[in-house]
Amino acid sequence: MKKEIDFLKAYEKKTEPARNIFQFLSKGLIGIMVIYCFLLAGIIFYWSILNREFKKVNSQVELKKTRIKQQEKKESLYFLLKNQLSFLPKIIPSGEENYSQIFSSISQIAEEKAKISEIKISSTGETQISGTAVNAFNFDKFLEEVINSEKIRIFSKIILNSISKTKEGNYIFSMTFSYDKN
Amino acid sequence: MIKTKDISKYKNFLFQIFLIGIIVFTGVNFFRPKLREVFQLRKKINEEKEVLAKLTQKEAFLENLDEQELTTKAQFLLKVLPPEKDVTIPLATLKSLVSQFNLQLQKIQIDLGGKTTSGLSSVGFSLEVEGEKEKIIDFIEKVKTTYPLMRMEGVNFSYGDEDLLNIKLKIETFFLEMPKEIGKLESPLPLINSEEEKIYKEVSQFSSPLSEEAINTIYPTGKENPFAI
Fold this sequence. Notes:
The structure holds 2 protein chains of 2 kinds.
Chain A: H1 9-70, H2 72-91, H3 99-110, E1 115-122, E2 126-133, H4 136-151, E3 155-165, E4 171-179
Antiparallel strand pairs in A: 1-2, 2-4, 3-4
Chain B: H1 2-9, H2 14-63, H3 67-80, H4 88-100, E1 104-111, E2 116-117, E3 120-131, H5 133-144, E4 150-159, E5 165-176, H6 194-203, H7 212-218
């Protein structure tokens, strides 16, 4: 009877777990490699799509830029207009003093009661007047009118700066007040 | 002998080492830069899309503007707020207004040292005018609606001889430099707000006592106005 002796048996038994690990590692690495290749291919594909998209958007941007450049004259004119208009409100204040209105109001109040010799109106609306009333009665009437104008909001902050009587009996006066814009 | 034996020990791992080598090599030299490129491209596309949206909006805005209307408005506003500091036109305008209302020009002083802030400069005029009361009032009202733009800084009324009214008024005329640049191509155009529209309506009523021919004679003949559009 022929008896076979398996000399490697003992060795095989001894290295079985190591071989399994080795096979697992080999298969695992191949798997990783396959996944890696798919990932790489995906990235390249996505990159090419993005690249195409970028070129498309870029060409659209260039087209728009060219079209806008063609309308450069319109743009310059609009810009000039806007520049001029943005400065105008700074130069023309909304509540600009109405000099002729102030003058007319004072003249109307004075009428026959007093003779206004000078009216100074500043850009802030502060008004200084000086004039002469022929007698105390007329001056009183004039003062009354000025005070009434405060009530109907034509003038405000009325100050009588000076008053003096001349030899002839005339009253020379000086007043300051503000014009009510509203 | 020992060395060969040592190498043969790793013979079975050569394939795996080779795979790992490929992964590492392509990862460092190809995968990583490509991935970075992808992120950069995405960022760039988003930025370009934003620019495109702005440009589209601007293009539509510009298309809706009427060039003829813009030219008329801009030309008119250049008369109201001239781009270059000048004394002759405001002076001629004031003199013309004075004679238009049959007034007597007693005195005129010019202050060239007007303030300059962000392109805006001014020239000051001090006037002494005499005439009838109604005409003086009309004159003051007319100055307010005359171009080049004139702002009154204060008025002194006094009665002179023969009941004629005498006024001393300070007037400032303004000049605004032309914008040096119109901004970036993709930046949106600043909108004209309601206040500015209102002020344009107000200013569009302004007029000048000087005719175009008169203005042309004031400027040296044979020279073109460099600001003509």
